[in-house]
Design a protein that fits this description.
Structural class: mainly alpha
Largest sheet: none
Radius of gyration: 26 Å
Shape: elongated
Distance between the termini: 68 Å
Order of helices and strands: H
Length: 55
Amino acid sequence: MPQLNPAPWLYIMLASWLILALVIQPKLLPFTSTNALPNKTTMTANTPSWDWPWI
């Protein structure tokens, strides 16, 4: 069964991952998201402690 021979497919997979990691990914990383989150102040919730009835 020739499809089980990993020799050509392993090389193709490694070459495609190297191209993705070294060529395409650095070109995509500088783009920023268009949906930037606004700066909001964080509010801490002041919740009372829970009194467990069985303790």
